[in-house]
């Protein structure tokens, strides 16, 4: 219980009235990793095999499906990349971070030929050039129907009058999309018997791998961000290259093979001991026994990852509520962890001197009120699946007629859960609603701005404490001409607060507004600020 003077309540009401007209368009939803979205792909040709389907794009990106399940993150976060004299050519993969290769120049991408047999496999021939370097890449992708591997033969030709140092990398952000596995996660491995590198599922039954036919210069399996950074960075800059390591933990996996060649003027790469003109490798996807790799004998046992529950409380009135009226709380509980929660219990505190419980309703029968205490409501929740398993409901209270005005109804809801890794605890965002003569609800919450009026170019600190603990919060500001400029997405602290030190350098004088948008709570906190 917290007492507030009426003058403070009036200040809140005036602030919310001022902010009600502020545009609060939600920020874009978060996506995995950093960096821009991958460009749209064109010129794809598909082998619709079984169990593997393969699409090759004219920029040498690829999409692999196993029994209808996409095997690369974002469907096409994989393929062939070529670095020539320190510049990487290819197409930026989804969630590639700062990896932004220079685009290939597509030459051709053939229709599918062949019958899908061992003697006459399905075939796609794709040709692209690396800018004006004179390096020409011909990729022949083949697949024998009924198998768990595709094959790639690359011919890399130098048509220039100068020698070229060439690095070819074939790899992907592995989605590890198999029955029962946590999407995007696997145990990294390297098989010294075959040279295969990749990741396998939690239950050790399925694998994604790349296997050299021509001996590789290097291999690597790592977290996807680390992997892409080894290939390249911004503006086509080549990275340091793959480093012959694997991450054997259960993680967001990526893997690939590297082939280094020096091409003499007007000469093809010769990658095999016989000085053949091709670099060859295969990709294997499916059951370990079908792909034909050997997993490490020290492979970790299957273990369920932990659950992680967040709890958002959305009161029907966020400023004030009148005695005798109904206050409704919409509640949303979501498991954002990779593991399943077995059971959860929520404790919703209330002050019986201020409110009386009316009712509670939920979207599923496995969420129910198990106890009504003198000062708390206890809610039991059944199993919630990993990665966005959720339940929601509405809890209604009547404000007592004799509740004193000027007193705040405030608190946090506590939640605890058991999962297959142990247990966990968390709490909701804080709620704080004043009992007053009139019920007031505003579309925005208070966002403190310090200073609210400042010379152009000055730093301004914005802060709010209304969010769910660790909630991703989209941030943008509205300019005097009505246009919107994104700032970014940050996480609220463990107490639900977020503070941003904003630089107004380069902004013209005028009246602006800053907006924080909670991706979980869907709360908007906004504040005007004036640059002079």
Concise description?
With 532 residues, this protein is mainly beta. The chain is built from 3 helices and 39 strands. The protein is 5% helix and 47% strand.
Q: Per CATH, what is the topology of the largest domain? A: Beta-galactosidase, Chain A, domain 5
Spans of at least 5 consecutive residues whose pLDDT stays below 50 are 1-38, 268-277
Query: Number of helical runs?
Result: 3
**N- to C-terminal separation?**
41 Å
- CATH architectural group of the largest domain: Distorted Sandwich
| CATH domain class name of the largest domain | Mainly Beta
Number of domains: 3
Give the biggest sheet.
13 strands, antiparallel
What does the overall shape look like? globular
Keywords: Signal
Signal peptide: 1-20
Protein name: DUF11 domain-containing protein
